[in-house]
Structures are given as C-alpha cells and as structure tokens.
Amino acid sequence: MHEDGILTLPLQAIKGRGAASRMVHRFARDARDAFDDGWDAQADGAGPAAAPRTQVIWEDARSALCSNDSPDIFFEQSVNPYRGCEHGCVYCYARPTHSYLGLSPGLDFETRIIAKRNIAALLRAELARAGHRPSVVNIGSATDCYQPVERELLLTRAVIEVMRDARHPFALVTKSSGVERDLDLLAPLARERLAMACVTITTLDAALARVLEPRAAAPHRRLRTIRTLAEAGVPVGVSVAPQIPFITEDMEQVLAAARDAGATSAFYTVIRLPWELNPLMREWLQLHYPQRAERVLARIQDLHGIAEADRRAGKAYDSRRGTRMKGTGLWADLLRQRFEKACARLGLNRQRTALDLSQYRPALARGQGVLF
What we know:
It is a single chain. This protein has 13 helices and 10 strands. It has one domain (55-351): pyruvate-formate lyase- activating enzyme. Helix 8 packs parallel to helix 12. Strand 9, helix 8 (251-261) and strand 10 form a beta-alpha-beta unit. It has helices at residues 107-111, 119-127, 150-153, 155-166, 183-191, 206-212, 219-231, 251-261, 277-288, 293-303, 308-312, 330-346, 362-365; strands spanning 55-59, 65-67, 77-79, 82-83, 112-116, 137-139, 170-174, 195-200, 236-239, 265-267. InterPro entries: MJ0683-like, rSAM, rSAM_sf. Keywords: Iron, Iron-sulfur, Metal-binding. Pfam families: Radical_SAM.
C-alpha cells in the first residue's frame, strides 16, 4: 500500500509468460502503478483479466547485419529476423532493447514481436557488396530465430536461403525444436562446412524451465532436437547459459545429457542484469523463489564483483568487457572449474568446428554465376 492509502494490486505470475508486468522502460517520462479502484471484475460476470496475447508488428528494417568487436563474443556479425521473443525467458539480456522502441522490457518484449519483413532482401544486398568481409554470421543473437511466430512467417528460413545462395557460413542458436523444419537446408550446408547449430538448455528441471523460459521447448524436447541435428550431420553444440546461482544447479547433468544426444561442443555464460533486467529479475525471484531471492541476488553481485556501496544502491551487473560474460572472483572461478572439468570428462570441446569462409562469393548473392 502506498503512503497515500491507495491499495496497489499485488503482482501475480502469468501462466505462459516470463514477466509479470509491463515494467516501465528507462526512457519513459512517467511511471504508473496499478491500484485497486474498488471495481470487482468478477462481481459483474466479467471474469479475471485475460492473459496478454502475442501481437506481431511488421517493420521495414534499415540493415540486416550487425557488427561487434567485443572480445567476449565469439562472432563478429549477426542477423536477427525479429525483435523481442515469445519464449519469455525472464533472464534474457536482450529485453532492455525493447526500450528503444518505447515498449516495456517486461511483458511487451514477449508479447509484441517485431518482424523484419524485408530482412532477407536486405541481407542479400549486404552480402552482395564486393567489399563485404566474410566471417561466421550468428543468426539469432538477440532473439530466438525459431520462436513460435517463425512457423508462419518463415523469416529465418528466408535468411538461411540467402546464406546458402551466397555460400556464406553461419551458426544459429535456439531453444526451439522448430529448427528441425529447416534440416533440408541445414544438413547439405553442414556437409559443406557452411552451417552449424547450438541448442540452449539452461536446466533439465522441467518445472523450473516452465517458469524460467515458459514458451521455449521443454528440456527433453531440446535434447531430442540435438539428437536430430547430429544424426542429420549438422555440427551441434549445447549452451548452458545463463548460469543463475542457486536456481540452475544441474550444469554437469545438462552437459552429460547433451553429449549423449550428440553435442560435441559447449559453452556457458553467467546471468547478466543490465538496465531494466535488474528489477525484472528481482520481481521474478520474489514471485517464484521468495525464500532465496536475496541469496540469489547477492551471489549474482559476487559474480560481477560489485562493490559494497554499489550493492546497497542495488547494482547487480558490471558491463566491462572481458569479465561480463563469465564473471570475476571466487564464485566465477569455481563455476569455470566445474564447466571445464565436466567438459574434459565428457569429451566436449576437444575439436572445434571450423566453417569454411573461402566459399563465399558476392556474385552468387546477386544471383550471378561465377567462373571460379
């Protein structure tokens, strides 16, 4: 209850959604709180408020490829067919990007999906430039390229077709079994060392996954996707990211199950809480794990080396390059040791898949033949 006596509505988890509110984004001029005005929706037969539905918003993007020079990231270029992601993973580091659109990093990020209808045409034009320098392009760095709307919109498939035409190598990361639909494209490209895939499995605990990443494929289904990709000849790895202290505690079991399914490589990151993701994660913890919320947040602050004064101010993330992905200090080092020992025992990461950059031809992207 506010000091002025207004009774605020208690937050409640929403089935099938990661966020519980449309948290105000950082560029908003005004902040609003919901409150009980005395009108009971059920008293007049209206029933409880309906769960928010997914809305697709079309966008004409200005560019397809996004470049980065961060030492923390294994790719230099990426392409994202969508903004926002219906999977609703509460920890997603891309949530604060919805603020640039004037939308909430909370529910809006997972219910208002921006679809870039011209992404394939833009990508084809950019790959056709004579000055384009090829590097392995990551598909889906800030969204899941196989989230549910892809089943109908086929934007990711169109992007892969452009990469195929240009003979340009790429890797994709997903939590969805939807990637199996495109095996007719991925398997031949993988045989020619032009494609690889990575499946993220944060935990094998199905109950935890339902509230942590509510609309992503179930953990057992993702393992089946790894097996399907591997059997089709697609090099496949597993991402056990992000590691959330006292929440995701089965890293070794995930790595073993993924190895048994056919994964040959693995990587991890620790949870990061930039901008609005900090209060959003705190909100989620209070709803789902109130008894351990403070303990989890304290350990996240440990992982990012947050000083005591900054802790008191609520800071939980250090964005400095070089440490932001894996953390720093004792707990980060223990996590690294666990990962490395598990990978060594399981035979993961013994050989890295090297995709072939030499096959790229800008003329092929333009639809022209080449002599050599």
